[in-house]
């Protein structure tokens, strides 16, 4: 098998091959792989590694040919070897593209984060004849992302402390002015709702994502209702579709539904042991309809004589901040409210 000037062996060419097209392919492959900044490798159809370009040997510092076959996995960090093997075997069995991040041993002895990718080469019948792959050093980007995550967590911690300090100041003030206690309690509850929404409003990595799951509308609502005993009792029910929520939608949604739950606990369905609230979410294309339905609470005589602050806050949150629409029906059996939104207004991912 021919070798290039750096000693990296070229695949595919058999001794004595005289086909001009094949020779030209080999020459093209050699030039392409040696000018690329990435490490390039190739395997037979069965996954046996039989080629690495010069970049691989420059990065790892190992002798030419020493990582052929299955020896390549020994170059990975011990904690990454099993996962890399599992993903590689899956690609060999299914023909799916290979992609994995792992720590590769540098010639200095340190392990550097690397992105490995590979695609199959198929013949006219669709059979895999080879795999061509690359390794890209992403260590600097990976370390930068880890540093950003650390800073994000520290900033989040400080913001939560600010929420706690504000809530404490409100409580301290209300003790000196007893007539303000009801108002102070409502304000503290709103600040607490904002604090819970904050976990959805800040960027997350896989490690920092809220334990309740991905940042979705149902996840946010579940977190907001968790302080209410009715939620654990199964009297606050969330049904239907789900959409992603981030900093675009978390705060206005949290404020709106906090006000609904607070009013339900004071005057509506959640003020009685049997009362229920059902939140139904239905998505049709870009449109999102959310329905709030109270049942088995005190009988509703009709619309209130005046619009309270909570209702005005809902209007501000949903209508003005998210560009939605809100409709209320004060049925005798309980309040029914519908919100019409665009799913794309709740997150950047949805709007992309």
Report on this structure.
- The chain is an alpha+beta fold and 352 residues long.
- The protein has two domains: 20-137, Beta-Lactamase (2-Layer Sandwich); 142-351, Heat Shock Protein 90, CATH 3.30.565.10.
- The chain has ten helices and ten strands.
- The protein has helices at residues 20-35, 54-60, 78-94, 139-176, 181-201, 217-225, 229-232, 250-266, 309-321, 348-351, and strands at 39-44, 49-52, 98-105, 111-122, 128-137, 236-240, 276-284, 287-295, 325-331, 334-342.
- A five-stranded antiparallel sheet has the order 2-1-5-4-3, with helices on both faces. A five-stranded mixed sheet has the order 6-7-8-10-9.
- Strand 7 (276-284) and strand 8 form a beta hairpin.
- Helix 4 (139-176) packs antiparallel against helix 5 and helix 8 (250-266) packs antiparallel against helix 9 (309-321).
- The longest helix is centred in the middle third of the chain and has 38 residues, at 139-176.
- The model is unreliable at 1-7 (pLDDT under 50).
Structural features:
5-stranded mixed β-sheet, 352 residues, 10 helices, 5-stranded antiparallel β-sheet, Beta-Lactamase, 2 domains, single chain, disordered N terminus, Heat Shock Protein 90, elongated, alpha+beta
Number of strands: 10
Strand order of the largest sheet: 2-1-5-4-3
Given as residue ranges, the uncertain stretches (5+ residues, pLDDT < 50) are 1-7
Structural class, from secondary structure content? alpha+beta
CATH topology of the largest domain: Heat Shock Protein 90
